Amino acid sequence: MTILFNHQLIDRSQARIDIEDRGYQFGDGVYEVIRVYEGKTFCLPEHVERLQRSAREIGLKLPYDGQRLEELLLQLLHANRIHNGTIYLQASRGVAPRSHPFPKKPQAVIVAYTNEAERPYASLNNGIGAVITEDIRWLRCDIKSLNLLGAVLAKQYAAENGCEEAILHRDGRVTEGSSTNVFRVKDGTLYTHPANHLILHGINRAVTLELAQELQIPVKEESFTTDALFQSDEIFVTSTTMEISPVITVNGRKVGDGKPGKVTRQLQQAFEKRI
Ligand SMILES: Cc1ncc(COP(=O)(O)O)c(C=O)c1O
């Protein structure tokens, strides 16, 4: 498999990550996951822009501009002939003797590779189960940081409870999922947490809000309580890999009638057309 390593496309077997890479030691870096549908990237400029923003927010200088990065990622995609799948991309603050402050002359280390992966048809068609757990992450969830321990622990909790996703709350108010944005439908209105420092500003969240507008579904970007979540007519989560996945149970309790809802289906159909 070909990977992007800094400025070059090389074979994976030739790549070496230094033991003092700050991404490895501190999680000091940022990343993106980009969807590929039938050989074409979905929302590539938006992902590159978000990577640049995340990098800026942590004072990490990327070695090339957005246009060059897009070119390199497309070259990577073509080298691996991915049909349906994802591109994973990360930028760390590079290699330096282990010490918390930034190195004097940091040089970002960039790695990108591809995965062939089918769309998540079972989740899209049948829905998923979710469990609620406390959001123990830091207060800059808008940065797509390599530090994912909070998300890892939440997802593990979901897995141990036979669920696909953990829905996170802070003081009883739902923020997002461990790797998704959370939406609820009540009396025909769509609710989701505002795009502030407490959530990742999901690319598919933004696409979903655009689709809702096109479909004239009323939207409120407002946080809601876990109690309100239980009273929802419909719940779904969005992400690059999960697309728009209905949530049919929360903590083992049925959402609505326990089947994917009407508004969710409408948005899924509109999403299908978009891709
Ligand atoms: C915490 C979190 N929220 C939301 C999302 C969804 O973002 P996107 O739609 O850009 O994939 C992700 C994606 O990985 C995530 O990790």
UniProtKB/TrEMBL annotation:
Reaction(s) catalysed by this chain's protein: D-alanine + 2-oxoglutarate = D-glutamate + pyruvate
Protein's job: Acts on the D-isomers of alanine, leucine, aspartate, glutamate, aminobutyrate, norvaline and asparagine. The enzyme transfers an amino group from a substrate D-amino acid to the pyridoxal phosphate cofactor to form pyridoxamine and an alpha-keto acid in the first half-reaction.
EC number: 2.6.1.21
Claim: Kinase is one of the keywords in the record: no
Name of the top EC class for this enzyme: transferase
Membrane-crossing segments per the record: none
Organism: Kroppenstedtia pulmonis
Family per similarity comment: Belongs to the class-IV pyridoxal-phosphate-dependent aminotransferase family.
GO cellular component: cytosol
Known partners and oligomeric status: Homodimer.
GO biological process, one term: D-amino acid metabolic process
Superkingdom field: Bacteria
Protein name as it appears in the record: D-alanine aminotransferase
GO molecular function: D-alanine-2-oxoglutarate aminotransferase activity; pyridoxal phosphate binding
Keywords: Aminotransferase, Pyridoxal phosphate, Transferase
